[in-house]
């Protein structure tokens, strides 16, 4: 605007104040308190008592910690690759200019909007229980089903299947990346006689590696923090026999059922270190396979 002077930076801080206040009150301060509580015995009812690194020592002697970590790592290792593979396949298909493609994109994105909700977790539990729709379909084929979510050997895989179903967000990111690839590359490949498969692996995939890298990192982080599916489908216990005991669920049990807030805080910081370490490793090895077109 004519005559307006942008020499009063405090005005920007006034508009940022609500976000800054929320960030300090609901993120920074709770993190600092959590770090302090992780070195204390704190049961909510009494003041925290400093015990040093005892909580961290106890964690690494806790069998359920290792069980929850193993379940979560299995969930990540099996769920993330399949989720991103399906997302990439659908993105390649939906990139094509076909009738109604926008409708299909919206439909395939819907599971990601509702996938983490309580309602969908309940629906998933109904699908895979003894009287669920999955067993009814199997019965039509002459196959006797089971209670998939109550059987230790299959319960975790139903949650992995739910995570794979939620591929909408990475699919949208892949779509954005595919649209940024210049058609000149494909025209040159066609002139050289490259087939579709070779073109995909030698042009599309290398140029898409920044999006692949971003999706891998974010999906791994989200998978390690998964909570709602395990809580709802297992009834908040990790049943059957801890086969669905996610790390975050175990943290919740220790903090809000056993009221061991100091121990739960230590679990949270161990998880932060695990995620940070994996992310750092991903960035270290990413420079060897991620291609940035400059």
Enumerate the strands of the largest sheet in spatial order, edge to edge or round the barrel: 1-2
* SSE-based structural type: mainly alpha
Count of extended strands: 2
Total domain modules: 1
Shape: globular
User: How much helicity do the residues have?
Assistant: over 70%
First and last CA, distance: 36 Å
User: Which whole number gives the mean pLDDT?
Assistant: 90
Oligomer: single chain
The helix count comes to 13
CATH class: Mainly Alpha
Low-confidence stretches: none
Our Rg estimate from Cα atoms comes to 24 Å
How would you describe what is shown here?
This protein is an all-alpha fold and 294 residues long. The protein has a single domain, classed as Orthogonal Bundle (MetI-like fold), CATH 1.10.3720. The protein is 70% helix and 1% strand. It has 13 helices and two strands. It has a two-stranded antiparallel sheet. A hairpin with a 7-residue loop joins strand 1 and strand 2. The protein is globular.
